[in-house]
Automatic annotation (TrEMBL):
It comes from Microlunatus elymi. Keywords: Signal. Residues 51-311 form the Periplasmic binding protein domain. This is Sugar ABC transporter substrate-binding protein. Gene3D superfamilies: 3.40.50.2300. The keyword Lyase does not apply. The keyword Oxidoreductase does not apply. Residues 1-24 form the signal peptide. Transmembrane segments: none annotated. It comes from the Bacteria. The lineage of its organism: Bacteria, Bacillati, Actinomycetota, Actinomycetes, Propionibacteriales. It is found in: Cell envelope. InterPro entries: Bact_Solute-Bind_Prot2 (IPR050555), Peripla_BP_I (IPR028082), SBP_2_dom (IPR025997). One of its GO terms (molecular function) is carbohydrate binding.
Length: 369
């Protein structure tokens, strides 16, 4: 879809239609997570207040399985007449920019945005400001937002770095005895930079030799796998641990390490099913478990307040922006039961085969419920 200024009426009309089409389902294909008009009550909302929810991608399972349904549920509870209009950027910054423009064209009163690429938002944020439409930073911070909710991402990185050290200690390995590699997140994701900063600080303070580092494009597990596989083919010393920024990249790391016959300490983040299963198998030492329901609730409360012309009731401030942070936990095999307490993760999803079910039972997980 093309959004350009046109002088002739026909071209202008085409642009307007393109914008409306984008909001109704730009890139709307089955499985891509775009519905372009789902009301909070599941139907058409007519003249109701519209709140746009724009999430970045669907390779990370949390967005479709947790963030979206939780946000829609919370908005409905706060304002049953509000209409939540949802689109997923599918890791395409240009597509997401079109979705923001379309939301503005269609009359959204508030936009809740988790950006694919925060550095590319300047033009669309200027348009939102010109229309007096507040934009909320959801999960990933960007300048110019009216409110921000996420986890304290540098602190998350510190938790990850400490998990690497704890994994080495549990294995009886001196953290100074060999190289550690870092498989970071997407360089376009500002959270990834914070994770990396926090983890690097902890590891360097412990005297760890960070011998190699890689930024994983689009959080793609295959990119992580290929990089680690290439590193392992050389004659350089093999790593005693590999920091992985999330469970998806950790899966790629584990696949490459196993193929090369290596067993470094591997950590991850997000508490995804695959990551939890890798922990039960002993292939991954830890993950960072984040409860997404509070984050969605904070965003919903702020969005409804802003739509009514009110200020969000935030408990904190980040870069002069009203902010609410959510706490996170380090999860290992020893405390893995913690992830099942909120209902965000189901035992049946993790312990889903006979082999994994036995590992679950051995770890003290009740698989009978």
């Amino acid at each position: 879809m093309v959004h350009q200024r046109a002088i002739r009426g026909l071209a202008a009309g085409a642009v307007a239609l393109a914008a409306l089409a984008a909001f109704a389902g730009c890139g709307n294909q089955k499985g891509q997570g775009n519905d372009g008009g789902a009301a909070a009550d599941g139907g058409s909302a007519g003249g109701a207040t519209k709140i746009a929810l724009l999430l970045p991608e669907n390779k990370t399972t949390r967005y479709e399985s947790q963030d979206r349904p939780n946000f829609e549920k919370d908005v409905k509870a706060l304002d049953p007449s509000a209409q939540v209009v949802y689109n997923n950027g599918n890791q395409d910054a240009t597509q997401q920019q079109q979705q923001v423009e379309a939301a503005l064209t269609d009359g959204a009163k508030v936009i809740v945005l988790d950006p694919v690429d925060a550095s590319s938002l300047g033009a669309v944020l200027a348009k939102a400001k010109a229309k007096d439409v507040p934009v909320i930073s959801y999960d990933r911070y960007f300048e110019g937002s009216a409110y921000y909710t996420s986890f304290d991402n540098e602190k998350i990185g510190e938790l990850q770095g400490n998990a690497v050290l704890a994994g080495l200690k549990a294995k009886g390995v001196d953290p100074k005895s060999g190289p550690v590699w870092m498989v970071n997140g997407d360089p376009k994701d500002p959270n990834a930079a914070d994770f990396k900063k926090g983890a690097t600080k902890v590891l360097k303070d412990a005297g760890v030799n960070i011998a190699a580092s890689h930024d994983t494009l689009d959080w793609n597990p295959d990119d992580a796998r290929q990089w680690v596989a290439g590193q392992l083919q050389g004659g350089k010393p093999k790593p005693i641990a590999i920091y992985a920024a999330n469970d998806g990249t950790a899966g790629g790391v584990i696949a490459a390490a196993k193929k090369a016959g290596q067993t470094p300490v591997v950590t991850g983040q997000d508490g995804e099913v695959d990551g939890l299963q890798n922990i039960l198998k002993g292939d991954q030492y830890a993950t960072i478990y984040k409860s997404y329901a509070p984050q969605a609730k904070y965003a919903a409360e702020a969005a409804v307040a802003l739509a009514k012309g009110q200020k969000p009731d935030a408990k904190d401030t980040y870069k002069n922006t009203p902010t609410d942070f959510v706490e996170a936990d380090v999860i290992t095999k020893d405390n893995i039961n913690k992830v099942f307490k909120t209902g965000q993760t189901k035992v049946s999803d993790v312990c889903n085969t006979a082999a994994v079910k036995k590992l679950c039972t051995d770890a003290g997980i009740n698989t009978t419920n």
